[in-house]
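FYI - complex with pyridoxal-5'-phosphate, inputs then prediction.
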Amino acid sequence: MQYVSTRGQSPAVSFSQAVAQGLAPDGGLYIPEKLPDLSTLFAECEGLSYMELCYRFFKVFATDMDPDVLQACVEQSYQPFNHPEVAPLVSLDDETYVLELFHGPTLAFKDFALQLLGNLYEEQITRTGETINVLGATSGDTGAAAIHGLLGKKGVRIFILYPDGRVSPLQERQMTCTGADNVYAMAIEGSFDDAQAALKDTFGDAGFKSQVRLSAVNSINLARVLAQCVYYVYAYYRLPESKRHAEFVVPTGNFGNVLAGWMAQKMGLPIKSFCVATNQNDILYRLFTSGLYEVQSVEPSHAPSMDIQVASNFERFLYFSQKGDAARVSEIMKRFKETGRYSFPNFAPDSFTASRVDDAQILEIITRVYKRYGYICDPHTACGFAADLDSSAPRKPRVILSTAHPAKFPAVIEQAIGKEATHPTLEALKQATPRKYHVGADKASIQSFILEHGIRDAAL
Ligand SMILES: *Cc1c(COP(=O)(O)O)cnc(C)c1O
C-alpha cells in the first residue's frame, strides 16, 4: 500500500517512509492512497487478543515491513500495558460502557500510538543504521508519552523542552524519573510558548537539523492514527450484540482520536455514530454544530490535553470529506491559515454529533458519575459524559473513551469527590530520583546541549 499527502504535491511513499517523514514535504498529512474495505477482516477479529488484532490490522498497511518484525513491534508495544486486555471495555450499566485507554506506561491514551511509533522508529534505525535525535516541546502529557515511547530504544536520544515550574509535579516526574540514559528532560525558563518558540528556532536551522539528524515528535504521524483505529475494532466486538449500535463518545482536542474511529468506520467497522466531545476550547464543537471552523483564544481548562486552538488532524478528515480533492484541501487550509476561519456550506457529515462542557460542568460530571456509578473518571473523560448532565435526555447505548487515569489529576478529583485517586505507577514515581537539565530557552543553548548529549551514527 502507498501513502499520499492531503495536499497532493508530494510523491506517494511506502508505509516506512511515511512513518519516518511524519509530515509530507508539501506540508500535508499522509493518508492511505485508498481506504481498504476491511469488513471481512474485522468480522473475523471477534474474540482475538488485542495484540493479534493489532498485528492483523497493521499487516494491511505496513506492506513494506517483514510480518515477523511487525508482529514483534506490536508485541513490544502493548506488553508493557498494565492490563491483560490492554484496552478493557467496562460496563457501568446496561447502556453505558467505558473504554479504558489509560493502562499504558504514562496512563494516558497517547501511549497506544507512541509505544508503537517508538518501536517502529527503533526497527527502522536498526535496519538503516541511521540514528536520530528527537526534539519536542510539551506542556505536559505528550512529552511524557513520547519519552516513554522512546526510552531505552537503540539509536535514539530524546530531548523534551518544558516550562520549568509550569507543568504539574506528577507530569514532571513522569518525564524526569525514567532512569533511562537516552532521555533528556530540559527545563527552560518561561512559558510553554517560549519553549515552542525555541523549538521552532532550533528546527528552523536546516544545517543543524541535518547535522544531528533532528526529528520531531509530532501529533500527525500516520502510524499514530492507524494505531488508534485498533481499539475501536476491539471495543466494537466486545459489546454485546444488542448494543452494537452504541454511539462512540470521544473526548477530543486535535481530532486524532475520533478521526481514527471514523476511518475504521469507513473501512467497514459498523459503528453507527461518534460524538465529538470538547471542553470549553470548543472549535470542533462549533464546527460540527454550525459548519464554521474558527480559531479563538485558548482558555486553560481542567482538561489541559484538550486545550488546543486548531485541530491538526482535521485536515485528514477534510481530505476524505472532499472526496480526495487535494487542491481543494490546500485551498481551504490556506484560506483558514490566512483568516483564522473557514465556513463550510451545508456542513453535515453523517454519523457525527458534538458536545461541549466548561470547567464547572467537568467538576459536576465527575461528582455525578462517581455518585451514580461509583466510578472515578478523569477530567478529559468527564467531557464524554456531557449527556449525563441532562437527565431528561433519552438514554441510548454509548461507549465513552476514557483517555487518562484519574490519578493523573489529583487536585481536580479531590475537588469533585473529596478524595484522591491513586495509581501504583504514580506512587512509585514519588520515590524515584529526578534527572532534569536546566537549559536556556534559546536556539544557541539548545543546540549546544544537543551537540553535547546527542547521538552520532558511530555510536550505533
Ligand atoms: C491528547 C489527549 C486528548 C485529545 O486527543 P486528540 O487525539 O488530540 O483528540 C484527550 N485526552 C487526553 C488525556 C489526551 O492526552
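The domain at 89-107+223-423 is CATH 3.40.50.1100 (Rossmann fold). The chain has a mean pLDDT of 94.
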